[in-house]
What we know:
The structure holds two protein chains of two kinds.
Chain A: H1 7-15, H2 18-43, H3 47-66, H4 71-88, H5 97-117, H6 123-130, H7 138-167, H8 169-174, H9 179-201, H10 207-210, H11 212-218, H12 224-248, H13 253-289
Helix pairs in contact in A: 2-7, 2-9, 2-11, 2-12, 3-4, 3-5, 3-6, 3-9, 4-9, 6-9, 7-9, 11-12, 11-13, 12-13
Chain B: E1 38-49, E2 52-63, E3 67-71, H1 78-85, E4 93-98, E5 110-113, H2 127-136, H3 147-159, H4 175-187, E6 193-197, H5 205-222, E7 225-230, E8 242-247, E9 250-254, H6 256-259, H7 262-269, E10 273-277, E11 283-287
Helix pairs in contact in B: 2-3, 2-4, 3-4
Amino acid sequence: MSFDWNIITDFRVMWQYSFFRNAFIAGTMIAVVAGIIGYLVVLRRAAFATHALGHTGFSGAAGAVLFGVNPVYGLLLFTMSTGTGIALLGPRAANRDVEIGTVLAFALGIGLLFISLYTGYDTEVYSILFGEVLGISSSQVALTAEASAVILIATALIYRPLLFASLDEDVAEAKGLPMLGLGLAFMLLLAVTISIAVQIIGVLLIFALMVTPAAIAVRLTRRPAYAVLVAILVAVFATWAGLIIAFYEAPPASFFIVTIAFVLYVAVRAAPPVAGLLRGVGTSARRRRTAPGGPSTSSDSVGILGNQPGQRPLEPLT
Amino acid sequence: MVNEGSVTGIVAQRTEGGPGPGSPPFGRGPDFPGPYAEIIRADHLEVGYKGKAVWREATFDIRRGEFVAVIGPNGAGKTTLFRMLLGLQRPLSGSLRVFGAHPRRGNRKIGYVPQRHTIDRETHIECDKLVRLGYSGTKWGPAFSIREESEAASRALQAVGASEFAHKSLGSLSGGELQRVFLAEALVGDPEMLLLDEPLSSLDLRRSRDLVQLINGLVRSRNVTTLLVAHDINPLIQCLDKVIYIANGRVATGSPESVLTTESLTALYGVPVEVLRDSRNRIVIVGGEEGHGDENP
Protein backbone atom coordinates (compact mmCIF):
# COMPACT_ATOMS: atom_id res chain seq x y z
CA MET A 1 0.00 0.00 0.00
CA SER A 2 1.24 3.45 -0.74
CA PHE A 3 0.20 7.02 -0.24
CA ASP A 4 -1.52 8.50 -3.30
CA TRP A 5 -2.63 11.99 -2.21
CA ASN A 6 -6.31 11.06 -2.39
CA ILE A 7 -6.91 11.31 1.31
CA ILE A 8 -10.39 9.78 1.18
CA THR A 9 -9.25 6.69 -0.67
CA ASP A 10 -6.26 6.43 1.61
CA PHE A 11 -8.47 6.71 4.64
CA ARG A 12 -10.80 3.99 3.37
CA VAL A 13 -7.82 1.70 2.98
CA MET A 14 -6.58 2.45 6.47
CA TRP A 15 -10.05 2.04 7.98
CA GLN A 16 -10.13 -1.59 6.83
CA TYR A 17 -7.53 -2.42 9.42
CA SER A 18 -8.92 -2.92 12.90
CA PHE A 19 -5.67 -1.76 14.56
CA PHE A 20 -6.03 1.55 12.72
CA ARG A 21 -9.72 1.89 13.61
CA ASN A 22 -8.97 1.25 17.27
CA ALA A 23 -6.09 3.71 17.28
CA PHE A 24 -8.12 6.34 15.48
CA ILE A 25 -11.16 6.10 17.76
CA ALA A 26 -9.17 5.91 21.01
CA GLY A 27 -6.78 8.61 19.83
CA THR A 28 -9.61 10.99 19.01
CA MET A 29 -11.26 10.54 22.40
CA ILE A 30 -7.93 10.97 24.18
CA ALA A 31 -7.09 14.09 22.17
CA VAL A 32 -10.43 15.69 23.08
CA VAL A 33 -10.02 14.96 26.80
CA ALA A 34 -6.34 15.94 26.81
CA GLY A 35 -7.16 19.25 25.14
CA ILE A 36 -9.70 20.12 27.83
CA ILE A 37 -7.66 19.00 30.85
CA GLY A 38 -4.53 20.43 29.23
CA TYR A 39 -6.05 23.91 29.26
CA LEU A 40 -6.51 23.64 33.02
CA VAL A 41 -2.95 22.32 33.36
CA VAL A 42 -1.61 25.41 31.61
CA LEU A 43 -3.88 27.74 33.60
CA ARG A 44 -2.91 26.16 36.92
CA ARG A 45 0.79 26.05 35.97
CA ALA A 46 0.67 22.34 36.72
CA ALA A 47 2.99 21.21 33.90
CA PHE A 48 5.52 19.75 36.32
CA ALA A 49 2.82 17.89 38.21
CA THR A 50 1.64 16.48 34.87
CA HIS A 51 5.18 15.37 34.08
CA ALA A 52 5.50 13.76 37.51
CA LEU A 53 2.16 12.00 37.24
CA GLY A 54 3.14 10.54 33.88
CA HIS A 55 6.42 9.25 35.22
CA THR A 56 5.00 7.71 38.38
CA GLY A 57 2.41 6.17 36.08
CA PHE A 58 5.28 4.45 34.31
CA SER A 59 6.24 2.71 37.54
CA GLY A 60 2.64 1.63 38.05
CA ALA A 61 2.46 0.25 34.54
CA ALA A 62 5.80 -1.54 34.94
CA GLY A 63 4.53 -3.10 38.18
CA ALA A 64 1.33 -4.20 36.46
CA VAL A 65 3.32 -5.82 33.65
CA LEU A 66 5.48 -7.60 36.23
CA PHE A 67 2.42 -9.04 37.96
CA GLY A 68 0.67 -9.85 34.68
CA VAL A 69 -2.08 -7.25 35.04
CA ASN A 70 -3.32 -4.83 32.37
CA PRO A 71 -0.84 -1.91 32.56
CA VAL A 72 -3.63 0.69 32.58
CA TYR A 73 -4.69 -0.44 36.07
CA GLY A 74 -1.15 0.08 37.36
CA LEU A 75 -1.14 3.46 35.67
CA LEU A 76 -4.43 4.47 37.27
CA LEU A 77 -3.34 3.29 40.73
CA PHE A 78 -0.03 5.16 40.67
CA THR A 79 -1.18 8.36 38.96
CA MET A 80 -4.25 8.67 41.17
CA SER A 81 -2.35 8.13 44.39
CA THR A 82 0.41 10.53 43.35
CA GLY A 83 -2.23 13.03 42.24
CA THR A 84 -3.96 12.76 45.60
CA GLY A 85 -0.64 13.36 47.35
CA ILE A 86 0.11 16.44 45.28
CA ALA A 87 -3.39 17.83 45.85
CA LEU A 88 -3.01 17.36 49.60
CA LEU A 89 0.19 19.42 49.55
CA GLY A 90 -2.08 22.41 49.09
CA PRO A 91 -3.62 24.57 46.41
CA ARG A 92 -0.36 26.11 45.28
CA ALA A 93 0.85 22.86 43.76
CA ALA A 94 2.78 24.82 41.16
CA ASN A 95 5.16 25.95 43.91
CA ARG A 96 5.73 22.44 45.14
CA ASP A 97 8.47 21.47 42.69
CA VAL A 98 10.80 20.14 45.36
CA GLU A 99 8.23 17.86 46.99
CA ILE A 100 6.90 16.63 43.65
CA GLY A 101 10.44 16.04 42.38
CA THR A 102 11.32 14.02 45.47
CA VAL A 103 8.32 11.74 45.08
CA LEU A 104 8.97 11.50 41.34
CA ALA A 105 12.53 10.24 41.85
CA PHE A 106 11.37 7.65 44.39
CA ALA A 107 8.57 6.46 42.08
CA LEU A 108 10.96 6.07 39.16
CA GLY A 109 13.27 4.08 41.39
CA ILE A 110 10.42 1.65 42.09
CA GLY A 111 9.75 1.55 38.35
CA LEU A 112 13.37 0.56 37.74
CA LEU A 113 13.05 -2.22 40.32
CA PHE A 114 9.95 -3.57 38.56
CA ILE A 115 11.70 -3.55 35.18
CA SER A 116 14.76 -5.31 36.55
CA LEU A 117 12.55 -8.03 38.06
CA TYR A 118 10.57 -8.44 34.84
CA THR A 119 11.88 -11.16 32.55
CA GLY A 120 9.45 -10.85 29.64
CA TYR A 121 9.74 -8.84 26.45
CA ASP A 122 10.97 -5.30 26.82
CA THR A 123 8.55 -4.13 24.11
CA GLU A 124 5.96 -3.82 26.90
CA VAL A 125 8.17 -1.34 28.74
CA TYR A 126 9.03 0.45 25.53
CA SER A 127 5.37 0.92 24.64
CA ILE A 128 4.64 2.44 28.07
CA LEU A 129 7.49 4.91 27.61
CA PHE A 130 6.70 5.97 24.07
CA GLY A 131 3.16 4.77 23.37
CA GLU A 132 2.04 1.93 21.13
CA VAL A 133 -0.79 3.46 19.25
CA LEU A 134 -1.15 0.72 16.68
CA GLY A 135 -1.44 -1.96 19.32
CA ILE A 136 -4.67 -0.77 20.94
CA SER A 137 -7.24 -3.51 21.44
CA SER A 138 -11.04 -3.22 21.31
CA SER A 139 -11.24 -3.59 25.08
CA GLN A 140 -8.79 -0.71 25.45
CA VAL A 141 -11.03 1.37 23.19
CA ALA A 142 -14.00 0.57 25.42
CA LEU A 143 -12.06 1.47 28.55
CA THR A 144 -10.91 4.72 26.93
CA ALA A 145 -14.51 5.57 26.05
CA GLU A 146 -15.67 4.97 29.62
CA ALA A 147 -12.85 6.99 31.14
CA SER A 148 -13.39 9.83 28.65
CA ALA A 149 -17.10 9.96 29.46
CA VAL A 150 -16.36 10.18 33.18
CA ILE A 151 -13.81 12.96 32.62
CA LEU A 152 -16.15 14.94 30.36
CA ILE A 153 -19.11 14.74 32.73
CA ALA A 154 -17.05 15.55 35.83
CA THR A 155 -15.37 18.48 34.09
CA ALA A 156 -18.70 19.89 32.94
CA LEU A 157 -19.97 19.80 36.53
CA ILE A 158 -17.00 21.56 38.14
CA TYR A 159 -15.73 23.62 35.20
CA ARG A 160 -16.63 27.13 36.40
CA PRO A 161 -15.52 26.76 40.03
CA LEU A 162 -12.35 25.00 38.87
CA LEU A 163 -11.61 27.77 36.39
CA PHE A 164 -12.26 30.40 39.06
CA ALA A 165 -10.13 28.61 41.65
CA SER A 166 -7.33 28.17 39.10
CA LEU A 167 -7.36 31.78 37.97
CA ASP A 168 -8.00 33.64 41.20
CA GLU A 169 -7.30 31.40 44.13
CA ASP A 170 -7.61 33.92 46.99
CA VAL A 171 -10.96 35.35 45.90
CA ALA A 172 -12.34 31.90 45.11
CA GLU A 173 -11.38 30.74 48.61
CA ALA A 174 -12.98 33.80 50.22
CA LYS A 175 -16.12 33.16 48.19
CA GLY A 176 -16.41 29.78 49.84
CA LEU A 177 -15.22 27.39 47.14
CA PRO A 178 -13.74 24.14 48.50
CA MET A 179 -10.16 24.69 47.34
CA LEU A 180 -8.76 21.39 48.56
CA GLY A 181 -11.66 19.47 47.02
CA LEU A 182 -11.29 21.24 43.68
CA GLY A 183 -7.53 20.69 43.70
CA LEU A 184 -8.09 17.00 44.41
CA ALA A 185 -10.77 16.70 41.72
CA PHE A 186 -8.43 18.31 39.21
CA MET A 187 -5.53 16.00 40.06
CA LEU A 188 -7.75 12.92 39.77
CA LEU A 189 -9.08 14.08 36.39
CA LEU A 190 -5.47 14.68 35.33
CA ALA A 191 -4.45 11.23 36.57
CA VAL A 192 -7.18 9.46 34.60
CA THR A 193 -6.46 11.50 31.47
CA ILE A 194 -2.75 10.68 31.66
CA SER A 195 -3.47 7.00 32.24
CA ILE A 196 -5.46 6.69 29.05
CA ALA A 197 -3.25 9.06 27.04
CA VAL A 198 -0.18 6.93 27.75
CA GLN A 199 -1.57 4.30 25.36
CA ILE A 200 -1.21 6.71 22.47
CA ILE A 201 1.74 8.84 23.35
CA GLY A 202 3.66 7.15 26.20
CA VAL A 203 4.72 8.65 29.50
CA LEU A 204 7.79 10.39 28.12
CA LEU A 205 5.88 12.23 25.41
CA ILE A 206 2.76 13.05 27.43
CA PHE A 207 3.38 16.80 27.17
CA ALA A 208 2.68 16.75 23.45
CA LEU A 209 -1.01 16.02 24.15
CA MET A 210 -1.44 17.40 27.65
CA VAL A 211 0.42 20.70 27.50
CA THR A 212 1.44 21.75 23.98
CA PRO A 213 -2.08 22.05 22.44
CA ALA A 214 -3.27 24.22 25.36
CA ALA A 215 -0.07 26.26 25.30
CA ILE A 216 -0.79 26.96 21.62
CA ALA A 217 -4.44 27.76 22.37
CA VAL A 218 -3.80 30.38 25.08
CA ARG A 219 -1.68 32.30 22.62
CA LEU A 220 -4.44 32.36 20.04
CA THR A 221 -7.46 33.36 22.12
CA ARG A 222 -8.15 35.11 25.42
CA ARG A 223 -11.47 33.38 26.00
CA PRO A 224 -11.28 30.16 28.00
CA ALA A 225 -14.11 28.47 26.08
CA TYR A 226 -12.43 29.15 22.74
CA ALA A 227 -9.05 28.19 24.15
CA VAL A 228 -10.41 24.79 25.19
CA LEU A 229 -11.86 24.38 21.70
CA VAL A 230 -8.57 25.30 20.01
CA ALA A 231 -6.64 22.96 22.33
CA ILE A 232 -9.00 20.13 21.36
CA LEU A 233 -8.65 20.90 17.65
CA VAL A 234 -4.85 21.02 17.85
CA ALA A 235 -4.67 17.76 19.82
CA VAL A 236 -7.09 16.01 17.47
CA PHE A 237 -5.31 17.33 14.38
CA ALA A 238 -1.88 16.24 15.66
CA THR A 239 -3.23 12.81 16.58
CA TRP A 240 -5.01 12.22 13.26
CA ALA A 241 -2.12 13.47 11.17
CA GLY A 242 0.34 11.45 13.26
CA LEU A 243 -1.67 8.26 12.85
CA ILE A 244 -2.12 8.73 9.12
CA ILE A 245 1.55 9.50 8.46
CA ALA A 246 2.67 6.60 10.66
CA PHE A 247 0.50 4.30 8.55
CA TYR A 248 2.88 4.85 5.66
CA GLU A 249 6.15 5.75 7.31
CA ALA A 250 8.43 3.72 9.55
CA PRO A 251 8.71 5.99 12.63
CA PRO A 252 5.99 5.48 15.26
CA ALA A 253 2.87 7.67 15.40
CA SER A 254 3.88 9.25 18.71
CA PHE A 255 6.93 10.75 17.03
CA PHE A 256 4.77 12.43 14.40
CA ILE A 257 2.21 13.63 16.97
CA VAL A 258 4.93 15.22 19.09
CA THR A 259 6.58 16.79 16.06
CA ILE A 260 3.36 18.25 14.67
CA ALA A 261 2.43 19.72 18.06
CA PHE A 262 5.92 21.15 18.44
CA VAL A 263 5.96 22.74 14.98
CA LEU A 264 2.58 24.37 15.64
CA TYR A 265 3.81 25.65 19.00
CA VAL A 266 6.96 27.15 17.50
CA ALA A 267 4.88 28.78 14.77
CA VAL A 268 2.52 30.36 17.30
CA ARG A 269 5.38 31.53 19.52
CA ALA A 270 7.37 32.89 16.60
CA ALA A 271 4.49 34.62 14.84
CA PRO A 272 3.95 37.59 17.22
CA PRO A 273 7.65 38.54 17.48
CA VAL A 274 8.03 38.22 13.72
CA ALA A 275 4.86 40.27 13.17
CA GLY A 276 6.07 42.74 15.80
CA LEU A 277 9.41 42.97 14.06
CA LEU A 278 7.71 43.67 10.74
CA ARG A 279 5.38 46.17 12.43
CA GLY A 280 8.33 47.70 14.24
CA VAL A 281 10.16 48.25 10.94
CA GLY A 282 7.09 49.95 9.50
CA THR A 283 6.54 51.95 12.67
CA SER A 284 10.05 53.28 12.94
CA ALA A 285 9.84 54.33 9.32
CA ARG A 286 6.58 56.12 10.04
CA ARG A 287 7.99 57.64 13.20
CA ARG A 288 10.85 59.12 11.31
CA ARG A 289 8.35 60.79 9.02
CA THR A 290 6.16 62.17 11.80
CA ALA A 291 7.17 64.56 14.52
CA PRO A 292 8.52 63.13 17.77
CA GLY A 293 5.93 62.63 20.46
CA GLY A 294 3.41 61.31 17.97
CA PRO A 295 1.01 58.52 18.80
CA SER A 296 2.75 55.81 20.73
CA THR A 297 2.66 52.39 19.20
CA SER A 298 3.29 50.59 22.44
CA SER A 299 2.85 46.89 22.17
CA ASP A 300 0.73 44.79 24.48
CA SER A 301 3.77 43.78 26.47
CA VAL A 302 3.31 46.35 29.22
CA GLY A 303 4.63 44.98 32.50
CA ILE A 304 1.94 43.92 34.86
CA LEU A 305 3.07 45.77 37.92
CA GLY A 306 5.16 48.52 36.45
CA ASN A 307 4.08 51.76 34.94
CA GLN A 308 5.97 51.92 31.72
CA PRO A 309 6.59 55.25 30.13
CA GLY A 310 4.70 54.31 26.97
CA GLN A 311 1.57 53.49 28.89
CA ARG A 312 -1.70 55.02 27.86
CA PRO A 313 -3.05 57.43 30.50
CA LEU A 314 -6.17 56.37 32.31
CA GLU A 315 -9.37 58.07 31.38
CA PRO A 316 -10.89 60.68 33.70
CA LEU A 317 -12.46 59.37 36.82
CA THR A 318 -15.97 59.63 38.07
CA MET B 1 7.09 54.31 51.53
CA VAL B 2 7.56 57.60 53.22
CA ASN B 3 6.19 56.66 56.59
CA GLU B 4 8.57 53.80 57.23
CA GLY B 5 11.70 55.56 58.42
CA SER B 6 12.57 56.71 61.88
CA VAL B 7 11.65 60.16 60.70
CA THR B 8 8.47 59.62 58.87
CA GLY B 9 5.99 61.70 57.08
CA ILE B 10 2.29 61.40 56.91
CA VAL B 11 1.76 64.56 55.02
CA ALA B 12 -1.70 65.31 53.88
CA GLN B 13 -4.44 67.77 54.24
CA ARG B 14 -7.97 67.34 55.38
CA THR B 15 -10.38 69.11 53.13
CA GLU B 16 -12.67 71.48 54.91
CA GLY B 17 -15.63 69.67 56.32
CA GLY B 18 -14.44 66.50 54.55
CA PRO B 19 -16.78 63.78 53.44
CA GLY B 20 -17.39 62.37 56.88
CA PRO B 21 -20.43 60.32 57.74
CA GLY B 22 -21.91 62.95 60.02
CA SER B 23 -22.58 61.88 63.58
CA PRO B 24 -23.68 58.28 63.70
CA PRO B 25 -26.56 57.52 66.03
CA PHE B 26 -25.25 55.34 68.80
CA GLY B 27 -27.18 52.68 70.61
CA ARG B 28 -28.79 51.20 67.52
CA GLY B 29 -28.84 47.46 67.09
CA PRO B 30 -26.74 45.79 64.42
CA ASP B 31 -29.81 45.08 62.34
CA PHE B 32 -30.73 48.71 61.99
CA PRO B 33 -30.97 49.13 58.25
CA GLY B 34 -30.34 52.87 58.07
CA PRO B 35 -27.32 54.57 56.55
CA TYR B 36 -25.25 54.30 59.74
CA ALA B 37 -26.07 50.72 60.64
CA GLU B 38 -23.21 48.85 62.23
CA ILE B 39 -21.42 46.66 59.67
CA ILE B 40 -18.50 45.45 61.77
CA ARG B 41 -18.19 45.24 65.55
CA ALA B 42 -15.04 44.00 67.27
CA ASP B 43 -14.99 43.50 71.03
CA HIS B 44 -11.71 42.82 72.84
CA LEU B 45 -10.62 41.01 69.72
CA GLU B 46 -7.37 39.05 69.81
CA VAL B 47 -6.02 37.48 66.64
CA GLY B 48 -2.98 35.46 65.69
CA TYR B 49 -1.64 32.25 64.23
CA LYS B 50 -1.19 28.98 66.06
CA GLY B 51 -2.11 30.48 69.43
CA LYS B 52 0.44 33.28 69.11
CA ALA B 53 -1.19 36.71 69.19
CA VAL B 54 -0.46 39.19 66.40
CA TRP B 55 -2.59 41.90 67.99
CA ARG B 56 -5.07 42.01 70.86
CA GLU B 57 -7.60 44.09 72.76
CA ALA B 58 -9.12 45.63 69.65
CA THR B 59 -12.52 47.19 70.17
CA PHE B 60 -14.07 49.17 67.35
CA ASP B 61 -17.06 49.42 65.07
CA ILE B 62 -17.44 50.26 61.42
CA ARG B 63 -20.70 51.69 60.13
CA ARG B 64 -22.42 51.53 56.79
CA GLY B 65 -20.86 53.66 54.10
CA GLU B 66 -17.65 54.40 55.96
CA PHE B 67 -14.33 54.56 54.13
CA VAL B 68 -11.70 53.12 56.46
CA ALA B 69 -7.94 52.85 56.03
CA VAL B 70 -6.13 49.99 57.73
CA ILE B 71 -2.63 51.30 58.33
CA GLY B 72 0.45 49.87 59.97
CA PRO B 73 3.92 48.50 59.37
CA ASN B 74 4.64 45.25 57.53
CA GLY B 75 3.69 42.16 59.48
CA ALA B 76 1.48 44.12 61.89
CA GLY B 77 -1.52 41.94 61.01
CA LYS B 78 -3.48 44.08 58.55
CA THR B 79 -4.19 41.20 56.17
CA THR B 80 -5.03 39.05 59.19
CA LEU B 81 -7.90 41.42 59.97
CA PHE B 82 -9.27 40.81 56.46
CA ARG B 83 -8.92 37.06 56.81
CA MET B 84 -10.98 37.26 60.00
CA LEU B 85 -13.67 39.36 58.35
CA LEU B 86 -13.81 36.88 55.45
CA GLY B 87 -14.21 33.96 57.83
CA LEU B 88 -10.91 32.40 56.75
CA GLN B 89 -9.48 32.60 60.25
CA ARG B 90 -10.96 32.59 63.75
CA PRO B 91 -10.22 35.02 66.57
CA LEU B 92 -8.08 33.74 69.45
CA SER B 93 -10.43 35.50 71.82
CA GLY B 94 -12.99 38.29 71.93
CA SER B 95 -15.81 38.63 69.46
CA LEU B 96 -16.16 39.83 65.90
CA ARG B 97 -19.52 40.43 64.22
CA VAL B 98 -19.90 41.18 60.52
CA PHE B 99 -23.37 42.23 59.36
CA GLY B 100 -24.57 41.27 62.82
CA ALA B 101 -23.37 37.68 62.56
CA HIS B 102 -20.22 35.61 62.92
CA PRO B 103 -17.92 36.03 59.92
CA ARG B 104 -18.38 33.24 57.40
CA ARG B 105 -16.64 32.22 54.23
CA GLY B 106 -18.58 32.91 51.06
CA ASN B 107 -20.51 35.91 52.35
CA ARG B 108 -21.97 37.48 49.19
CA LYS B 109 -22.19 40.86 50.88
CA ILE B 110 -18.40 41.16 50.81
CA GLY B 111 -16.29 41.99 47.77
CA TYR B 112 -12.59 41.20 48.19
CA VAL B 113 -9.44 42.26 46.39
CA PRO B 114 -6.54 40.26 47.82
CA GLN B 115 -2.98 41.45 47.83
CA ARG B 116 -1.49 38.64 45.83
CA HIS B 117 -3.22 37.50 42.76
CA THR B 118 -2.09 34.48 40.84
CA ILE B 119 -2.32 36.62 37.74
CA ASP B 120 0.82 37.64 35.85
CA ARG B 121 2.02 38.35 32.34
CA GLU B 122 1.45 34.76 31.30
CA THR B 123 -2.25 34.95 32.13
CA HIS B 124 -3.76 35.02 28.66
CA ILE B 125 -7.37 35.52 29.68
CA GLU B 126 -9.54 38.51 28.97
CA CYS B 127 -10.51 40.82 31.86
CA ASP B 128 -14.21 40.36 31.20
CA LYS B 129 -13.92 36.64 32.02
CA LEU B 130 -12.38 37.29 35.44
CA VAL B 131 -15.19 39.68 36.33
CA ARG B 132 -17.77 37.18 35.10
CA LEU B 133 -16.21 34.49 37.26
CA GLY B 134 -16.52 36.93 40.16
CA TYR B 135 -20.25 36.84 39.45
CA SER B 136 -20.86 33.17 38.72
CA GLY B 137 -17.59 31.37 39.43
CA THR B 138 -19.06 29.64 42.45
CA LYS B 139 -21.90 28.03 40.47
CA TRP B 140 -21.63 24.33 39.73
CA GLY B 141 -22.69 22.64 36.54
CA PRO B 142 -22.60 23.87 32.97
CA ALA B 143 -23.59 27.47 32.22
CA PHE B 144 -26.74 27.47 30.12
CA SER B 145 -27.27 31.22 30.03
CA ILE B 146 -24.50 33.74 30.34
CA ARG B 147 -26.55 36.83 29.58
CA GLU B 148 -27.09 37.82 33.19
CA GLU B 149 -23.42 37.43 34.16
CA SER B 150 -22.32 39.19 31.02
CA GLU B 151 -24.51 42.20 31.78
CA ALA B 152 -23.41 42.30 35.42
CA ALA B 153 -19.76 42.16 34.33
CA SER B 154 -20.08 45.01 31.87
CA ARG B 155 -21.86 47.14 34.50
CA ALA B 156 -19.05 46.49 36.98
CA LEU B 157 -16.33 47.20 34.42
CA GLN B 158 -18.09 50.40 33.47
CA ALA B 159 -18.34 51.48 37.12
CA VAL B 160 -14.56 51.37 37.46
CA GLY B 161 -13.84 52.88 34.06
CA ALA B 162 -12.44 49.65 32.67
CA SER B 163 -14.84 49.04 29.79
CA GLU B 164 -12.25 49.89 27.18
CA PHE B 165 -9.92 47.10 28.22
CA ALA B 166 -12.63 44.57 29.03
CA HIS B 167 -11.48 42.32 26.21
CA LYS B 168 -7.76 42.77 26.67
CA SER B 169 -5.70 40.04 28.23
CA LEU B 170 -5.14 40.31 32.00
CA GLY B 171 -1.45 39.74 31.42
CA SER B 172 -1.15 42.80 29.21
CA LEU B 173 -2.54 45.37 31.67
CA SER B 174 -0.63 47.93 33.70
CA GLY B 175 -0.78 47.89 37.50
CA GLY B 176 -3.44 50.58 37.63
CA GLU B 177 -5.61 48.95 34.97
CA LEU B 178 -5.33 45.60 36.71
CA GLN B 179 -6.45 47.07 40.04
CA ARG B 180 -9.54 48.47 38.32
CA VAL B 181 -10.37 45.06 36.92
CA PHE B 182 -9.92 43.47 40.36
CA LEU B 183 -12.18 46.17 41.77
CA ALA B 184 -14.79 45.32 39.12
CA GLU B 185 -14.48 41.64 40.06
CA ALA B 186 -15.14 42.58 43.70
CA LEU B 187 -18.04 44.88 42.79
CA VAL B 188 -19.83 42.59 40.36
CA GLY B 189 -22.18 41.03 42.89
CA ASP B 190 -23.16 44.45 44.30
CA PRO B 191 -21.56 43.83 47.71
CA GLU B 192 -22.28 45.98 50.76
CA MET B 193 -18.68 45.91 51.92
CA LEU B 194 -15.37 46.03 50.07
CA LEU B 195 -12.10 44.71 51.49
CA LEU B 196 -9.17 46.01 49.45
CA ASP B 197 -5.74 44.69 50.40
CA GLU B 198 -2.92 47.02 49.34
CA PRO B 199 -4.45 48.10 46.03
CA LEU B 200 -2.08 51.07 45.90
CA SER B 201 1.15 49.20 46.63
CA SER B 202 2.38 48.88 43.07
CA LEU B 203 1.16 52.24 41.76
CA ASP B 204 3.00 55.50 41.34
CA LEU B 205 1.70 58.61 43.11
CA ARG B 206 -0.54 59.83 40.33
CA ARG B 207 -2.17 56.46 39.66
CA SER B 208 -2.53 55.96 43.39
CA ARG B 209 -4.44 59.23 43.63
CA ASP B 210 -6.61 58.31 40.63
CA LEU B 211 -7.51 54.95 42.14
CA VAL B 212 -8.30 56.51 45.53
CA GLN B 213 -10.61 58.98 43.81
CA LEU B 214 -12.33 56.15 41.98
CA ILE B 215 -12.76 54.11 45.17
CA ASN B 216 -13.97 57.13 47.12
CA GLY B 217 -16.52 57.81 44.39
CA LEU B 218 -17.80 54.24 44.69
CA VAL B 219 -17.96 54.45 48.48
CA ARG B 220 -20.00 57.66 48.35
CA SER B 221 -22.27 56.83 45.42
CA ARG B 222 -23.05 53.25 46.48
CA ASN B 223 -22.79 53.71 50.23
CA VAL B 224 -20.56 50.64 50.24
CA THR B 225 -18.51 50.24 53.42
CA THR B 226 -14.85 50.01 52.40
CA LEU B 227 -11.75 48.89 54.27
CA LEU B 228 -8.50 49.56 52.45
CA VAL B 229 -5.14 48.25 53.63
CA ALA B 230 -2.31 50.65 52.87
CA HIS B 231 1.25 51.37 53.94
CA ASP B 232 1.00 55.02 53.25
CA ILE B 233 -1.87 57.17 54.39
CA ASN B 234 -0.86 60.08 52.15
CA PRO B 235 -3.04 59.44 49.14
CA LEU B 236 -6.03 58.48 51.28
CA ILE B 237 -6.36 60.88 54.15
CA GLN B 238 -8.68 63.36 52.50
CA CYS B 239 -11.31 60.71 51.87
CA LEU B 240 -11.25 58.75 55.09
CA ASP B 241 -13.92 58.49 57.74
CA LYS B 242 -11.90 56.26 60.00
CA VAL B 243 -8.44 54.84 60.51
CA ILE B 244 -7.57 51.46 61.97
CA TYR B 245 -3.93 51.83 62.95
CA ILE B 246 -2.30 48.50 63.79
CA ALA B 247 1.18 48.49 65.32
CA ASN B 248 3.13 46.92 68.13
CA GLY B 249 0.46 44.26 68.71
CA ARG B 250 -2.19 46.89 69.37
CA VAL B 251 -4.91 48.62 67.46
CA ALA B 252 -6.02 52.26 67.55
CA THR B 253 -9.25 53.19 65.82
CA GLY B 254 -11.16 56.37 65.23
CA SER B 255 -11.33 59.37 62.98
CA PRO B 256 -8.03 60.35 61.33
CA GLU B 257 -7.95 63.43 63.57
CA SER B 258 -8.23 61.41 66.76
CA VAL B 259 -5.89 58.55 65.79
CA LEU B 260 -3.17 60.55 64.10
CA THR B 261 -2.17 62.48 67.24
CA THR B 262 0.97 62.50 69.35
CA GLU B 263 -0.81 60.94 72.34
CA SER B 264 -2.62 58.24 70.40
CA LEU B 265 0.37 57.06 68.33
CA THR B 266 2.78 57.28 71.29
CA ALA B 267 0.44 55.04 73.26
CA LEU B 268 0.13 52.68 70.31
CA TYR B 269 3.82 52.29 69.55
CA GLY B 270 4.99 52.47 73.15
CA VAL B 271 7.81 54.80 72.07
CA PRO B 272 7.69 58.58 71.75
CA VAL B 273 6.04 59.63 68.52
CA GLU B 274 5.24 63.18 67.61
CA VAL B 275 2.51 64.25 65.22
CA LEU B 276 3.05 67.73 63.85
CA ARG B 277 0.64 69.90 61.92
CA ASP B 278 1.80 72.73 59.73
CA SER B 279 0.05 76.00 58.98
CA ARG B 280 -2.08 74.29 56.34
CA ASN B 281 -3.09 71.55 58.76
CA ARG B 282 -0.95 68.91 57.04
CA ILE B 283 0.20 66.10 59.29
CA VAL B 284 3.78 64.95 59.79
CA ILE B 285 4.63 62.03 62.06
CA VAL B 286 8.13 61.91 63.54
CA GLY B 287 9.68 58.95 65.33
CA GLY B 288 8.28 55.49 66.00
CA GLU B 289 8.18 52.60 63.58
CA GLU B 290 11.24 50.54 64.21
CA GLY B 291 12.00 46.89 63.63
CA HIS B 292 9.69 46.08 60.74
CA GLY B 293 9.15 42.45 60.04
CA ASP B 294 8.11 40.92 56.76
CA GLU B 295 4.59 41.19 55.52
CA ASN B 296 2.42 38.57 57.10
CA PRO B 297 -0.02 36.91 54.70
